[in-house]
Amino acid sequence: MTAYDDGNIFSKIIKGEIPSEKLYEDANAVAIMDIMPQTRGHCLVIPKAPSRNLLDASDETLSAVMPLVAKLARAAKAAMQADGVRIAQFNEPAAGQTVFHLHFHILPMYEGVELDLHSNRSADKAALAEQAEKIRAALNAG
Ligand code: AMP
């Protein structure tokens, strides 16, 4: 398997080298809005520990991140008044991975609405900021 390369965009976001619409941060992980959302409220949970994806992640990294994935799933569902939430996680290009630092997609789902295509179009920044504000409020409430 290809080795982890810290030149990826999520590593830069973790280090604060490039901006993001941040929802949450602790010692182990950050959560941000996805800039090419497939659904309203699409966000990402990104462990800080360097791994390319699930296949090379340590048990310690995985056990620390899953509670946060659940926390964001609950907050995004409540904040977006979604009917359900899908969690997605891609490993290697053949599986659709495009950024090679482990991350989990939180995808609020709405009755009768299909997901947009993966990495299809950029979001309106104001819409993302508005959704982020609601998700942050739900995180603080929960
Ligand atoms: P994956 O195919 O699982 O590697 O997905 C990478 C995701 O990262 C896609 O949904 C992109 O829209 C998203 N993405 C790429 N660059 C950024 C960025 N700078 N900020 C937030 N999300 C991003």
Quick overview:
With 142 residues, the protein is α+β, with helices and mostly antiparallel strands. The protein has helices at residues 9-14, 59-80, 125-141, and strands at 22-25, 29-33, 43-47, 84-88, 104-109.
Describe the fold and architecture.
By secondary structure, the chain is of the alpha+beta class. The chain has one domain (9-141): HIT family, subunit A (2-Layer Sandwich), CATH 3.30.428.10. The chain has 3 helices and 5 strands. The protein has helices spanning 9-14, 59-80, 125-141, and strands at 22-25, 29-33, 43-47, 84-88, 104-109. It has a 5-stranded antiparallel beta sheet. α2 packs across α3 (125-141). The N and C termini lie far apart (39 Å). Adenosine monophosphate is lined by residues 9, 20, 32, 34-36, 90, 96-99, 119.
- Ends apart, CA distance between termini: 39 Å
The backbone outline, from C-alpha atoms, is: globular
The H-and-E topology, N to C, reads as HEEEHEEH
Poorly predicted runs of 5 or more residues: none
What's the name of the CATH homologous superfamily?
HIT-like
Count helical runs.
Answer: 3
The unique ligands bound to this protein are: adenosine monophosphate
Task: Tell me the fraction of residues in β-strands, as a range.
Answer: 15-25%
Overall strand count: 5
